[in-house]
Design brief:
The chain is an alpha+beta fold and 331 residues long. The protein has helices at 38-43, 71-91, 93-96, 101-129, 138-151, 209-213, 215-221, 228-244, 281-291, 299-302; strands at 32-34, 50-52, 59-61, 66-68, 158-161, 167-173, 180-185, 190-195, 198-203, 225-226, 250-255, 260-265. The strands form four sheets. Strands 7-8-9-6-10 form a five-stranded mixed sheet, sandwiched between helices. Strands 5-12-11 form a three-stranded mixed sheet, with no helix packed on it. It has a two-stranded antiparallel sheet with strand order 1-4.
């Protein structure tokens, strides 16, 4: 009999008594795992800090973001997995670079799915109170279902064939040791994290296309230690280009008796419809303004017509990387 994947999106059933990874009924509502791992909450004193969810009215403490999960899954799979990630993250950039991309993807997907899970549950409760039925578009259901299927690689044998479904880039950053800089955007499955001396920017379902799009830039960055504002600009560029991607990624997911095979369907390219839509400096400037808030740089400072948006990554005259040490802004 072929391996069966758990699909809560089929009937939008997010029962708190059902393990989020296996779909099996748990023995107690006390069986749960923290979305953000305990080691991270402790290290950055996040437990009582709040995270604003997709629905702006929904503000939740980090420590209250939990997922129902079998104790056996926690003890035998998630705890060892988190210990593996913790060891690498605590040693910094050089060790984080060594983590296989699939493991980084699993870790990021758990965080993004955990936040998405709470957003959906909140939305369902809100609609129920209004006497209405909660719905998601077919487009989002397909995207979120696929992410959850891939996340189940934590507990099921799964092989990713051919092109990887994601783009993941790890860079070195000059950070204060107490900085924890997390952002996600669930609709397009974007992720960024900065901490210790490294940053991760990822598009979790783009078939690697954003990595190709920004290859010249990331090749220039290589192992240089970026100023934080440069990392924020890098994130802004990736998130905006992912928005410009003209088509959604599709996957052939084939469960067999021994494994689940995941294969990315090549994204179609047509002369009349390029893979990426036209880059709009004005819209990009709005994205960048959101990332540069800590430095007080708004859209009007970023774009002065008819000039291109300012950049702290690339010199507009010679197109070389701006040396991080020449940037006088605070860290």
């Amino acid at each position: 009999m072929a391996i069966k994947l758990y699909n809560p999106f089929e009937s939008l059933d997010f029962n708190p008594e059902v393990c989020f990874l296996t779909g099996k009924k748990i023995n107690s509502t006390e069986e749960h795992v923290s979305v953000f791992p305990e080691w991270l909450l402790d290290r950055y004193s996040l437990k009582d800090k709040t995270l604003q969810m997709l629905e702006e009215k929904n503000v939740i403490k980090y420590q209250d973001l939990k997922l129902p999960c079998f104790i056996s899954v926690i003890e035998n799979t998630l705890n060892p997995f988190e210990e593996e990630i913790k060891q690498a993250f605590s040693l910094g950039y050089e060790e984080v670079k060594k983590i296989p991309e699939e493991r980084l993807f699993q870790w990021m997907a758990k965080l993004v799915y955990g936040i998405l899970y709470h957003d959906i549950v909140f939305g369902m409760k809100q609609q129920k109170a209004l006497g209405e039925t909660f719905t998601l578009s077919h487009f989002l259901i397909a995207k979120f279902k696929t992410l959850h299927f891939m996340l189940q690689s934590l507990v099921l044998p799964m092989e990713f064939k051919g092109t990887k479904p994601w783009t993941i880039r790890v860079v070195k950053i000059k950070y204060s040791k107490d900085v924890f800089n997390y952002k996600d955007e669930t609709n397009n499955l974007n992720f960024s994290l900065g901490m210790y001396d490294f940053g991760i920017v990822a598009c979790l379902q783009d078939n690697g296309e954003n990595g190709i799009y920004h290859k010249e830039l990331t090749d220039k960055i290589a192992d240089k230690t970026l100023h934080p504002i440069q990392f924020e600009e890098l994130c802004g560029r990736f998130i905006y280009s992912n928005y410009l991607l003209n088509t959604s990624s599709e996957y052939k997911i084939q469960p067999t008796e021994d494994s689940v095979y995941v294969e990315a369907v090549p994204l179609p390219v047509h002369n009349e419809k390029p893979l990426f839509r036209h880059w709009d400096d004005k819209m990009y400037g709005e994205v960048l303004a959101n990332y540069w808030k800590p430095w007080g740089l708004g859209k009007n400072e970023i774009i002065t017509f008819p000039n291109s948006p300012i950049s702290y990554l690339i010199n507009e005259y010679n197109y070389e990387l701006i040396e991080p040490d020449t940037i006088s802004l605070p860290y």
